[in-house]
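Protein modeling request. Please complete all fields; requests missing the sequence field cannot be processed.
Requester role: graduate student
Desired output: 3D structure, token encoding
Chains: 1
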Amino acid sequence: MKTQNHRRQFIKSMAKGLAGTVLGSSLLPLFANAQSSAGYKALVCINLQGGNDAFNCFVPMGTSAYNSYAAIRQELAISREQLLPLNSGQQPYGLHNHLLETQSLFNRGKLAVLANTGNLREPISKQAYFDKTALPPAQLFSHHDQTLYAHTLNQGTLSSGWAGRVAELLAQSNINQQLAMNVSLSGDNYLQRGINRLPYTVRSSGVSMIDQLSEADPTAFSASRARLYRQFLSSTRPNLLQNYYADVQMDAWGMAQYVTDILDSQPMPSLPIFAAANTNSFVQSLAMIVRLIAAQDAFEVKRQVFYVNLGGFDTHRDQLTLHSPLLMQLDQGLGLFYQALEALGLENNVTAFTMSEFGRTLTRNGDGTDHGWGSHHFILGGAVKGGQIYGQLPTLELDSDDDVGRGRIIPTTSFEQYVASLCRWFGVAKDDLNHLLPNLRNFNHPDLGFLG
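Delivered output (452 residues):
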């Protein structure tokens, strides 16, 4: 038990000691820190919870294709005159009229579209789907099951998510092991769970500290309370679970102080994303990610995976009213986030990407849409070969070879391929991909080519 107490004190002293070393070492200004970070890479997962209606985000503009889309969508169709055209040199497509920043980023070559992506165990045709000669993921149109599948990509087990496995595979990439490679701005999630390593969660407003245990002023009553609580946690107990709980509490306490001290040490740059954070909770989360990325030299990390959730996309009703504000939040966030990365000189080091458990039906159910399958996604970053549409565009016609009913479109690109492409850029060796993503071997093209 003496060893256990020493270990707890060591963890605490390391957290405070390392923070003290960093804070006392004449930290360079935030901009200089960021620009000096050769070899740093971060992935930012933007989860569009509920099943984003990508068929109203990314719309064909060719006469025949648009007329087919409009005939199916009826009152839900975005008018052709409102669509924001994309300069891809490929098939004529446009974006929803509230995706102005997204259009600009695409046309500047900083953002790409990945077409018709979704959960697949193996490639599947319409005939194979109905003949049951190829297996789709179980419970195909269930929010919970499809979120679980997209976030774990490990044949349905709950033991780990794909980002959790990446963190364990690349753990030694980070010099300092204090801060987890996976950082969530949206609480617990399947994607970042590891077997031996757990993500670190931080609020969009910062690290949650217990004011009643503040040690900022050694003479304050909260400091004396903190000393008592520390003694309580360090007490010798015969029960292993009690000791484990005490260790977790001590570790969390030390880590919260460590992260807070480093963030507080960083000068706050005058960037529009921080001003906008007060009016948009999604932007506030992205602003905190910017702060954490900018402090990566102080944290001594070279690889990070961030997760942020933007909810509300389950638009079974009143879709025209509900969907537009969500896209405005997403669009503002993408524009401000990339602008901040450019100001920090880190646009080539960070890749943001969208995910959603499924798309939505082409058909309407009145004034909304129902759970679909394939969907389109955005990939943003300086390393992205932007201004292009990747993957195979579906035929937007009912009863086509792509439609398994009510405009539920079969994906032609799997999340495994999507994630494998991100992971290769992130530093995962080609030989490790099949272990990381067990179903990847079922697909012919594990690297989709959208990242340099």
